[in-house]
Amino acid sequence: MTGKRLDAVRRAQAPIVGRDRELACLQECWARARVDAGGASVVVFRGAAGVGKSRLAAAAAEMVERSGAAVLELVGSPLHTGAGLYPVRVLLERRCGIGGTSAPRERLRLLTAEVVARRLDPAKMVPLLAPVLGIGADAGYEPIAAEGRKLYLLIVEAIHGYLLACVGDCAGLVIAEDLHWFDTSTLELLAGLLHASRGRLLVVITDRTDQWPPPGWPAEVFDLNPLTDTDPMTDTDPCRSRDSGRTPRRASRVAATDRFGR
């Protein structure tokens, strides 16, 4: 299931031209994720607005959907950079079918139905996911007897469990769109998801800054510039950035071990 953002990009954009290396790298990383080859595969597209990052992310979604696998989309918002776990809230609302005017009890009912559909324990998961959706205990669930950092960690663990349940036993794709607008909690959650996935995920990130990935992330990074008619097309390395003219930075596997405990 993709979100409205990627659907809109696919409807509006013409076929991709001149991004052969980026597309080949996505295909290579997806193949690696499908055979669980050494941890989650991460591809980062960085560059200014309008350079084509979202179109490449949409191409990744199309590729994964053709194989019958799950696609999950986390989207940052410039209006909610300080709202904790806001991209997760939007994803949950979309997957649960929760509208902006849904009453708390209706939101709770839809959340419970989604948790059950994912074959998760509603007694355990609903009290941890409900706060992410702004659903208070007065809507009809028993709150968790925890607070502060302990409650936060339990919520993050529940989100990890839910996202992996959405993917199922096969490989899947997580798109982190507009990472520059992600709040700190969602950034931490994304890093933890790479560890929790145990190699079943392809994670595609779009970002306008050069701050990601942080040191230790095992990622393929493309710094995108606008295409021109004179761009060279001679390099055959599928994981070499066409626009920057240099191979994407790859965190060493030693660094990845230090970061994620592998």
Question: What would your notes on this structure say?
Answer:
It is a single chain. With 262 residues, the protein is of the alpha/beta class. It has one domain (4-12, 19-260): Rossmann fold. It contains 9 helices and 5 strands. The chain has helices spanning 4-12, 20-34, 53-66, 86-96, 104-117, 122-129, 148-167, 184-197, 253-260, and strands at residues 41-46, 70-75, 172-177, 201-207, 219-223. Strands 2-3-4-1-5 form a 5-stranded parallel beta sheet, sandwiched between helices. Helix 8 links the parallel strand 3 (172-177) and strand 4. Residues 232-237 and 240-262 have low confidence and may be disordered.
Key attributes of the depicted protein:
262 residues; Rossmann fold; globular; alpha/beta; 9 helices
Task: Extract low-pLDDT stretches.
Answer: 232-237, 240-262
Number of contiguous helices:
9
CATH class reads Alpha Beta
Largest sheet strand order: 2-3-4-1-5
Compute the separation of the termini in Å: 30 Å
Helix content range: 40-55%
The coarse silhouette is: globular
